[in-house]
Amino acid sequence: MDLVIKYGGSLLFEDGNIRTSRIDAMCDAVRTLAGEGHAVGIVVGGGATARSYIRGLAPDYGQADKDFVAVMATRMNAMLFISRLSDLAAPYPPQTYDEMVRQLREGRMVVAGGMQPGQSTNAVATLLCEAMGADHLVNATDVDYLYDKDPSRYDDARPLEDATYAELREIVSASGAGAGQYELFDTVAVNNLVRSHIRLHFVNGSDPERIVRLVRGERVGTTVHE
User: What residue spans of the chain are helical by DSSP H?
Assistant: First the structure.
């Protein structure tokens, strides 16, 4: 299987500290998958780091400025993975799509953060899928499933084991997001899934073994498809 793992920034930190043991476990899982012959790409979100920087900006900073700061935070987070996968991964997160493709052509694993203002790391992950020819995107978050509505706001939120692109689009449209707040997914990323027929899997990434089990064919989390 060729796949991209979008690793949510919410998984990286606890009480302001980097969860190094979790990063190590995720990198061990990636090595396991690569050793089994799977081509793996990784895109890392901004999480609390990005949001902290955005909150610290002067009030007159615009959305594009905030997005740019969030992009830089995601690249710092990506370096945490690159440092542990240095024998497999390209030495730096690509800053453009051209750089991403160049790293792939050099036979290196791509570990990316964000690329440009107005583009979420979810969208970057779908672009990496397209560049790799990967037909699976694993969205590793801190919840077990995709829900029909925000479970932190609605007690009657229902977990979904299967969903269609159309259902995902409706859920995303209802959630809304600003700079540094692409917590679920976004419309641009959904459009990319649809055009390239990429299966999306929502998996709780706090235990990376769940991702290994998913790739090996077990039913884990939510699968979004046509």
Answer: 20-35, 47-56, 63-82, 97-105, 121-132, 165-175, 187-196, 209-215
* pLDDT tens, residue by residue, 129-160: 999 999 999 999 998 999 998 887 888 999 99
Q: How many CB atoms lie within 10 A of CB 162?
A: 11
C-alpha span between 132 and 196 (Å, rounded): 12
User: How much is the pLDDT for 127?
Assistant: 97
Number of neighbouring beta carbons within 10 Å of residue 31: 15
Q: Count structural domains, the chain.
A: 1
| pLDDT band for position 180 (cuts 50, 70, 90) | very low
CA 206 to chain centroid: 13
Kindly report the three-state secondary structure assignment for every residue of 186-222: CHHHHHHHHHHCCEEEEEECCCCHHHHHHHCCCCCCE
Query: Domain range for residue 49?
Result: 2-225
| pLDDT (tens digit per residue) in 28-51 | 999 999 999 999 999 999 888 888
For residue 143, the domain's CATH number is 3.40.1160.10
Q: How many CA atoms lie within 13 A of 28 on its CB side?
A: 10
Dmax over Cα atoms in the chain, in whole Å?
50
The per-residue pLDDT for 177 is: 53
CA proximity to 88, closest of 28, 135, 132: 28
